[in-house]
Amino acid sequence: MDLLTKLEGVEQNFSFLDLEGLHLAGAKLHRAQLKGAFLNNSIFEDAELHGANLTEAQCIGTDFTGAHLTGACLEAWNIDDTTVLTDIDCQYVFLKAEPDARGDRERRPHNPDKIFQPGDFEKFFKEMLDTVQILIRNGVDPVAFKAAFEQVMVTDPDITRESVQAMEKQGEDVLLTLKVPEGNDKAQVERSWDDGYQRGLKAGYTSGLLEGQTQRADDVKEVALGFGQLLSSIQITNMNNPINTGDGGFINTGSMEGNVVNLGELSGQVSVQINQLPDMAASADQPNLKDLLLQLKAAVDDDTELSADEKVEALGEVAKLAKAGTNPQENAMQRMAKRATDALKSIAEPLSEASKLATVCKSLLPMILTLF
User: Fold this and answer.
1) What is the DSSP letter of 347?
2) Chain centre distance of CA 265
3) Scanning 47, 229, 264, 328, which has its CA 20 to 30 A from the CA of 310?
4) Are both 92 and 164 inside the same structural domain?
5) Integer CA distances (angstroms), 20 to 6, 17, 49, 63, 81, in order
């Protein structure tokens, strides 16, 4: 094999071969197929792996010091903290071997006009190694989410709310990324999460999820907006795709490279939801829900006593009232409205009499409830 004798492997196919423990420093492996190859404990120091396909390659204990990896595909490659990624020469990589319908292969960096700077490659994959990703299937139950998060913090005190790196909506599911200290038992972290989440559901913390994609989107939105105190520093992400609420409104929660929830954008998105409600009241003797919610939202926006976290939480409750107003005679929407008004009362309770939110809550919330 020329790879062993001459270190030549350009465009050759080594897929699923056992190359464990080999000394391949300086090997020329441009565009080589190394899919599923066993590369554990091998030395690829200064190896030329431009455009190589390392999909599902086993790279535990592998030394890539100074390797050239620009354009390589690293989909599901298996690395750990024994994999050496020092001084990697790489401008960009792909995380998918096959392009999707848009031709996207998950390039990193995402922006095609950007490239990794020296040291970026190691930081990017080191950060991935120090995380646990938990897939929450079929939507998020917000209170069970909180129960699970608290369970994880109890069993592993090194994990705090700042450990949450992202929440990414993937179809009907949500991918939660938690940063964990090096050396932590990641399997135990996931077990603790799963146990806490299931206990939260079984204990009847919530009245259960409604069927359908619309409610699943609302559940994600509730996590994004309704846990201002617990999750105030979390980046809620979903790969640049807004979370569709099913009624034409959406909560655009950022991207993998995004920022924490922006109050101005959030307020505007809630306004979009409210403005989708009818302009006229259902009958002449009833107030108009749209007008009441716009007044309520304005009070949240303008209240100087509310912290940014409290405004996020309050706007989330106003958004739920707007959602409930799309079908106010449905039992589930009536329950949502009741919970939202109770939450707003709780937020307003400690505020002074001069507070705009406290004032409008006293006058508007009773009128809002009569419409459900």
Assistant:
1) H
2) 18
3) 328
4) no
5) 18, 9, 17, 12, 17
pTM of the model: 0.48
Residues 117 and 135 in one domain: no
Peptide bond into 112 cis (omega under 30): no
Tell me how far the alpha carbon of residue 7 is from its chain's centroid: 42
Pairing of strands 236-237, 164-170: parallel
Residues 229 and 279 placed together within one structural domain of the fold: no
Q: What is the largest CA-CA distance in the chain?
A: 90
- Same domain? For 109 and 34 the reply is yes
Long-range contacts formed by 60-65: CB under 8 A, 24+ apart: 64/88
Q: Same structural domain for residues 224 and 205?
A: yes
- Which structural domain, as residue segments, surrounds residue 95? 1-129
Model pLDDT, residue 203: 65
Token digits for 173? 């599911």
**pLDDT tens for each residue of 165-211:** 777 777 777 888 888 887 778 878 888 898 888 888 776 533 333 33
Query: pLDDT per residue over 224-238, tens digit each?
Result: 444 444 443 344 444
